[in-house]
Amino acid sequence: MELRINRRALIGLGVAAALTASSFALLRTDAGTASSHREAPMIAGDPRNDNTDVYAFVSPDRADTVTLLANWIPFQEPNGGPNFYPFDTRSRYNIKIDNDGDARPDITYQWTFRDEDRRGTSTFLYNNGPVTSLDDENLLFRQRYTLKRITRHGVRTLVSNGVVAPSDVGPASMPDYATLREQAVHGLSGGGKAFAGQADEAFFLDLRVFDLLYGGNLSEVGQDTTKGYNVNSLAVQVPAADLALRGDVRRNPVIGVWSTTDKWSPRGYTQVSRLGNPLVNEVVSPAGLKDAFNALPPAKDADVAALVKRVTDPELPKLLEAVYGIKAPATPRADLVEIFLTGVAKGNGPIAADLNSQTLNKDAGKLRPAEMLRLNMTVPPAKDPNRLGVLAGDLQGFPNGRRLGDDVVDIELQALAGAATSGKLVAALTDKVDHNDKPILRSFPYIPLPSGVAVNQR
What we know:
By secondary structure, the chain is α+β, with helices and mostly antiparallel strands. The protein contains 11 helices and 12 strands.
């Protein structure tokens, strides 16, 4: 199928959404910024607080556990010294879980960081010799962290003096970075694990979607824009029962997951980043909502008419029709409400499947629609994962959680074009970047080791 641009239709297409006064009041732009790879105006100047991706999946090698992983600080050039890429010591980094469907966090895993800097006025170097362990005296700058588990019953410290895997300075400085990664995996009581440190940017895509949707004729595809860059990752692996409502995975198999960053200011901590499903704020939200969306707690999503409208009447299908002639599905899009706001269940909308809505939890109350990544923890790991996830019959893949190998760009393009209800894929509708350039690791935290080659040398 050859797709050609219809420039006249594109010029005539109205794509701006008006904000009502009440909606704008709920979306206070002074309170927050955005996440997902610098896609909002304000967060572009604050990369240490920019939350780029969230992953949630049943651990492939420990099927009774769930791995939650979130990334920050996008587009890290491997040779970005001398300061490299530390976490912000004045921020709180959170992964939040809603297991009863009220759109409020029932469990929060929260990381805070502190610097250990021995350079003083004597050197500019990150290290002054080869670093072979996390406590190596040659490592002059390191970060330590505290990890807490917060519930309505109280706060429990899981890790009090964890060491962050450092930025990978290079092979002369860190000849065996895999060992440093391994040492940075911290065991938790009850059989869990935690990690904080640098990693390869596992999100793969061609970002030229913003040039009139891949050049207007799909000629600008096949280039992994994030190839070679690194991120900072935070991850926990815990028994599924630790996340399930009332600790009962069989009765209450579904959780909702999102991450946030709380930044310190004279007014106290303020949420400046929020991320659940990939690309929501990047592609679904218009420019006028991007900064404000990430200050909003999920419990208020359903109150913002302008935000809900961007799901029920999204912009991208109209652009696909204008540019490529792919007919946009009829609105309102109840299928997208299921994918992004309620989870997929037979009682929620037109997608005829019980998959990942908290309405499937027998002990849950009334569901409040909210944007978050939802995972059914009873779906076992796929023996042969398919990059297109649920659309290809692989029920462990996105939008049922998100694995590191899920091709979320292609999945969301197809879903926005109507594939979740029609069952039909548009073969040409792809960015032709099907996988990351580095393989997923077989053990926690699974995300590949950081790249050590300058991006402009690739």
